[in-house]
Structure formats: structure tokens, C-alpha cells
Amino acid sequence: MARPRTPIGTFGNIEFTTLPNGVVRARTRVRDYDGRVRRIEASGPTRTLAEHRLKERVLDRTKSGPGSDELSADSSFPHLVAVWLEDLDLEGRVAQTTRDLYERNMRQLVMPEFTSYSLREITVGRVDRFLKRLATEKSYSTSKQAKTVLSLAFGLAVRYEAVQRNPVRETSKLRKPASTTKALTLAEIDTIRKAVKTWRRGTGLSGPKPDGQLEAIIEVMLGTSARIGEVLAIRKCDVDVTASPATVRLCGTIITRRGVPTYRQDHGKSSKSTRTVAVPAFTADVLRQRFVSVAKEDPEHLLFCSRNHTPLLTNNVRRRLRSALSQVEVKGVTPHSFRRTVATVLDRAGGAELAAEMLGHTSSDITKEHYIEHDDKVNPVTAEILESLAPKGEGSD
């Protein structure tokens, strides 16, 4: 008759050893959920405390159940990060660029702080102090990014039952500093156009002269509200300049990843990002000019491209824009400045819902909070309505 197996979580005799420094070490063997027997140990200043800590560790392992061989409360934080990144790859729910951003934020912002800790040592207080310090020394945005990846990683630890709760969820809410959305004025847009048009076109300058694409990109951003990556991803087949008004289908974006050539992704940032927009005449004129420059190319060819017909890098466009505007009074202009300008103009004329639809947002709340410049002028119709409160003339009832 077969001998019955020892039940899961059962441990044998406890061995106690007094170390040279006076600390008592307690050891035992435990059968884990995978059926294997492993040695567990704990230490303390007294025999009783060492035994108590040992039993706590045994209890933690039995609670963790399946998967405890991968993660436990005693696992190091770097081990959790490795398991978390592997889980992201297996699920495949986030875009590769987002996954890469998560890993970069984890390794650059979080790992330096918690590399030497086990999961049980990463407490709510320790995380809370880290996030507040990061917000003070770096920025709110940096702290928020660190909080996001740290919470996601510990969410996995909770699902694996390596820890009982996610310490990030218990931290205090980060306070976002007050910010003001700024749209460009017509005068500022005119200044930008002139600066870009004359940039590096003087005599005596080394290197090739600008090819005119930066000016065209700005006009397309102003006429479509598109993100810089969406503009650079526009193909010949996405544009209809024969329609009245001309239309542009925004259905992709340019992706740049480490170790991979820059490429066009066939979808945008969200489900609402794919949209067909009618464009004003000044944008249609620019698009027709770009059609001429790529007339011999196939319909899938990009309207904006390098001399080698490869996609333009979004960071390179940003760098060129900064360089072109370095000598003008208009400061802090980025490709997103044009997107905020479009949102503000549309809001003034047709409301936030129209602006959100144009920008490809899932909710007008996002548009209002981040893209529309606040207008402190109340609708003047209030003056007419309030005339009803005027004092009555003498002799009136």
C-alpha cells in the first residue's frame, strides 16, 4: 500500500541554531503546492520570535498557492518586475510602445528606489514617501508615471497572492499643480509661419536647405487637429483633394521604438482616433503640393517622408520646430500647441463636443480639461436677460 503524501503546507521539525552574533535561526522543511519540499528559515533575537517568524513565512507560502514558486512575499522587487514584464508580453493587451514606456519608467524611476527590497518590505508608507519625493524633486507627471507602473506590478503580485494588498492603492492622491491651457493667437500663428518659412534659407549656411515639409506639416496640423504622428502617417490614399471640401482620413500613426526601424502603425492612439475630417482651403492647397512631390509613388506612399522615402521621426520634426522658432518671441510651441489651438477655435464656434469629435477624443471632458483655453467672458446675452430686473419708471404699478 502506497504511503500517503504529506499534506500541502505541512512542515516538519524545527531546527534552531544560535549564530555567533547571538541571533537565533529557525529552519524547517515545507511541502509547497508544486509538491516539492523546500527549506524555509527565519531568524530573531530569541528562539520564540524566530519560531514565530518562521511559521509566518510558512503561512505566507501556503496562502500564495499556485504560482508561489514564481512570487512570494520574500521575492525581490526586481523579480516581481521581471514576472510583470513577462505577463505584459503574454497578455498582449497594451500597445508595444506603451509596454516599452512602462518598462522604461519602471527601470529609470522605480527600480533605483526598491531594488534592494523584498515585496513584504515595500510598505504603504515607503511607497507614499517615494512618490511625494519624486513629485517634489522631479515633477507631478514623473511621480504619476512611477505610481502607474508600480501599481500595475503590485496588482500582479496580489493576483499571484504573493502579497495580500497593493500598497500603491493606499497612498495619498497626488496633487496635480494648477496649469493653464494656452492656445495660439492669430498673430502668434503668423509669426510661426514667417519664422519657419525663413529658417535656414539665408546665404552662407552649411548643409542642405529645408525641403518645405515643416511648413506643410504645420498647415496640416492646423487644418486637421491631428497629432504629429498622425500627420506623418498620412498616405496618398488617405487624402481626397477632389472633394469639396477636401478630406483627410486619419487612420494611423508613426511609431519609433528602440532597435526597430521607424514604421507606420495602421491604427491611432484609440478607437476614436480613426476619423475622416474635412479640411480648410489653406490645408487642401498644401496637400495638393505634397501630391505633386510624390506623384510617381504608389497610393500607399506617405505624403511626408525622408529623402530615402522612409517615415519622418516625430522627434526630428519637434527638434526642427524648436530650432526654427528659437529666435522668435513665441515660446513653448510644440506640435500639440496647434492641436490645442484647433480645439479652442472649434469650441468657441461650435462647442466642446464638436472639438472633441475633431480631435478624436472619446469624451469632451478630456478636450475641455487639456485642450481648450479657458474663456472668462460670459455670454453677453445675459445683459439682455437681466434687463427684466431694471427698476420700473415713476408712476408704474
Automatic annotation (TrEMBL):
Pfam families found in the cross-reference section: Phage_int_SAM_3, Phage_integrase
Keyword DNA-binding: yes
Keyword DNA-binding: yes
Core-binding (CB) domain segment(s): 75-158
Keywords for this protein: DNA integration, DNA recombination, DNA-binding
Gene3D superfamilies found in the cross-reference section: 1.10.150.130, Intergrase catalytic core
Recorded superkingdom: Bacteria
Stretches assigned to the Tyr recombinase domain: 179-385
SUPFAM superfamilies the record matches: DNA breaking-rejoining enzymes (SSF56349)
InterPro entries: CB, DNA_brk_join_enz, Integrase-like_cat_sf, Integrase_catalytic, Integrase_recombinase_N, Integrase_SAM-like_N, Tyrosine_recombinase_XerCD
Family in the record: Belongs to the 'phage' integrase family.
PANTHER family listed in its UniProt record: PHAGE INTEGRASE-RELATED, PROPHAGE INTEGRASE INTD-RELATED
Name of the protein in question: Phage integrase
